[in-house]
Design goal:
- The protein is mainly alpha-helical.
- Helix content is about 75%, strand content about 0%.
- It has a single domain, classed as MFS general substrate transporter like domains (Growth Hormone, Chain: A, Up-down Bundle).
- α2 runs antiparallel to α5 and α11 crosses α13.
- The two termini are about 15 Å apart.
Length: about 450
C-alpha cells in the first residue's frame, strides 16, 4: 500500500543513508528551539531533584520521610492528570506549557530563597513538592501532546521522541554531577536557584516558536463527556491499555528506587553527596546510551518487542544493585538499570504517540502521565516503608523481581497487541497492506519486520 499522502516517508537519499537520519527531527525549526531551551532547563531540573533528596535526608535522616516527600510531589499528578488531559485537549497547548514552566520557575526560586536563608523545614519541602506535582499534572500531558506540533512531518515523530529522551539523559548525566559539586561546595539552595533561572530558556523557546492555530475538537462537548470519552478510548485499546498497565507496575515497584539513592550513597556505600552524584550520573549514562540507540532507528517498527525485554533488563539491574556494597560495582549496575528504564520508557512513548488519535492525544497522554508519574507516589511510600522495615538493598531487589514479572506478563500478550496495532500501522503507511487473510499474516512480520 502507498504511504499516507499526508505523512510521506522521509526521502532515502545518500545523506539519509548515513548517520544524518539520526538527527532528522532537528530540521524542524520549532523542535530546534525546544531542544535548545530544554537542554538548559533540564540540567537545572535534575540538580533540583538530587538536591531535594539530599536536603530531606540531611534534615531528617529518615527513609520514610524521603518516601513521603516523593509521595507529596507526585500524588497531585495522579489525582489531577485526567482532568488536566481534558483541559490540554481544549486549549492551546503552547499556552499551557508557558504557564506551567513559569509556575515551576517560581517554585524553584521560592525553594532556593527558603534554603539559602535557612528557613527551610520539612513542612515547606512537602508543600512546595505538592505544588510541583500540581504543575506536572498539566505540564506532562501538555508537553507530550505538543511534541507532534513541533515536528510537522509525522514520520519524524519517533526520532523527535528519541532525541528528546537523549536530551533528558544528557541532563540526567550532567545535572546530578553538578548538584553534587554545588552541594559539597555550598548548600542545596544554589541548586534550586540555578534551576529557577534555567526555566527562562525553555519559556523563551516556547514564545519564539511559529505554531499554526490548533484545531479544536470539543465544540458542544462538556468536559465531563470528554473525560468519559478519554477513559473509554484507553480502556478499549488493547495496545494502549497494556502499555499503560505495565508502566503503572514499573512506576509503582521499580522507578521509586531513585528515592532511596541517598540511603545507598550514605549508608550502604558510606559516601556523601559526591557518591549520590556518581550513582545518579551512572543512571544517566545508561539512559543516554539507550536513548541514542533509539535515535539511530529509522522507524517505529520493531519497538513492541523492546518493551518486555527492557522491563527485564531494568529488573535485573535493580536486583544486582541491591546485592552490591561497593561503589565501583554499583555504578555499572546503575548503568544497566538506566539503560533498561529508558529503553522501555522511550519505546512505549513512541508507540503511544504513533497510535493515538489526534483529538484524544491530551487525554491519552494524561493517562500516560498517571501511569508514569502518578503511580510513583504510592511507590515512594511503599519503598520508603519497605526500606525502613527490611532495608534499602532488599527493597530494590524485591522491586527488580516485580519488574521482571511485569515484562513476562506483557510478553505473553504481545501477539494480541501486535494484531490490534497492524490496521493502524497500515493506515499510517508504516507497514504495507497485504492482500492476505489475517490467518496468513505472521504477527511478527506484521509489526516487527
Amino acid at each position: 500500500m502507498a504511504a499516507d499522502p499526508q505523512h510521506p516517508p522521509a526521502p532515502q537519499n545518500a545523506q539519509d543513508a548515513g548517520l544524518s537520519h539520526a538527527w532528522r527531527a532537528l530540521r524542524h525549526r520549532n523542535f530546534r528551539l525546544f531542544f535548545g531551551g530544554q537542554s538548559i532547563s533540564l540540567i537545572g531540573t535534575w540538580m533540583t531533584r538530587v538536591a531535594t533528596s539530599w536536603l530531606v535526608y540531611r534534615l531528617t535522616k529518615s527513609a520514610v520521610l524521603l518516601g513521603t516527600v516523593g509521595f507529596a510531589g507526585q500524588i497531585p499528578t495522579f489525582l489531577l492528570a485526567p482532568i488536566a488531559g481534558v483541559i490540554v485537549d481544549r486549549i492551546d497547548r503552547r499556552k499551557v506549557l508557558v504557564w506551567t514552566q513559569s509556575a515551576a520557575m517560581l517554585q524553584s526560586l521560592l525553594l532556593a530563597w527558603l534554603t539559602l536563608t535557612n528557613r527551610i523545614t520539612i513542612t515547606e519541602i512537602l508543600i512546595l513538592s505538592a505544588f510541583q506535582g500540581v504543575i506536572n499534572a498539566f505540564d506532562m500531558p501538555g508537553r507530550q501532546s505538543f511534541m507532534i506540533r513541533m515536528v510537522e512531518d509525522r514520520t519524524d515523530l519517533s526520532n523527535a521522541i528519541a532525541i528528546n529522551s537523549s536530551m533528558v539523559n544528557v541532563a540526567r548525566l550532567i545535572g546530578p554531577s553538578l548538584a553534587g559539586i554545588v552541594i559539597a561546595a555550598t548548600n542545596e539552595g544554589w541548586c534550586f536557584f540555578i534551576d529557577g533561572v534555567s526555566y527562562i530558556a525553555v519559556i523563551a523557546s516556547l514564545v519564539m516558536m511559529r505554531i499554526k492555530p490548533e484545531e479544536q475538537f470539543h465544540h458542544g462537548v462538556t468536559m465531563v463527556e470528554q473525560l468519559r470519552q478519554g477513559w473509554v478510548y484507553v480502556a478499549e485499546s488493547r495496545p494502549i491499555r497494556s502499555i499503560l498497565l505495565l508502566f503503572a507496575l514499573l512506576s509503582l515497584m521499580g522507578w521509586p528506587f531513585m528515592v532511596l539513592m541517598p540511603i545507598f550513597a550514605a549508608q550502604v556505600l558510606h559516601g556523601g553527596p559526591h557518591t549520590l552524584g556518581f550513582l545518579m550520573g551512572a543512571v544517566g549514562v545508561g539512559s543516554l546510551i539507550s536513548a541514542l540507540s533509539l535515535v539511530l532507528r529509522r522507524s517505529v517498527r520493531g519497538l513492541t518487542k523492546i518493551i518486555p525485554i527492557a522491563a527485564a533488563i531494568f529488573g535485573a539491574g535493580l536486583i544486582a544493585f541491591g546485592l552490591s556494597n561497593n561503589l565501583w560495582l554499583s555504578m555499572p549496575m546503575m548503568l544497566v538499570t538506566g539503560f533498561g528504564m529508558m529503553q522501555g520508557l522511550t519505546a512505549s512513548n513512541t508507540i503511544l504517540q504513533t497510535l493515538v488519535d489526534e483529538k484524544m492525544r491530551g487525554r491519552v497522554m494524561s493517562y500516560y502521565t498517571m501511569a508514569f508519574v502518578g503511580m510513583a507516589p504510592f511507590g515512594s511510600l511503599l519503598s520508603g516503608a519497605l526500606a525502613h522495615a527490611i532495608g534499602a538493598p532488599h527493597t530494590v531487589m524485591l522491586s527488580g523481581v516485580a519488574c521482571i514479572i511485569g515484562g513476562i506478563l506483557f510478553q505473553a500478550r504481545l501477539g494480541a497487541i501486535r494484531h490490534d496495532m497492524r490496521p493502524i500501522y497500515e493506515r499510517l503507511g508504516i507497514i504495507p497492506r497485504k492482500e492476505t487473510t489475517p490467518e496468513e499474516i505472521p504477527l511478527d512480520e506484521a509489526v516487527e519486520s
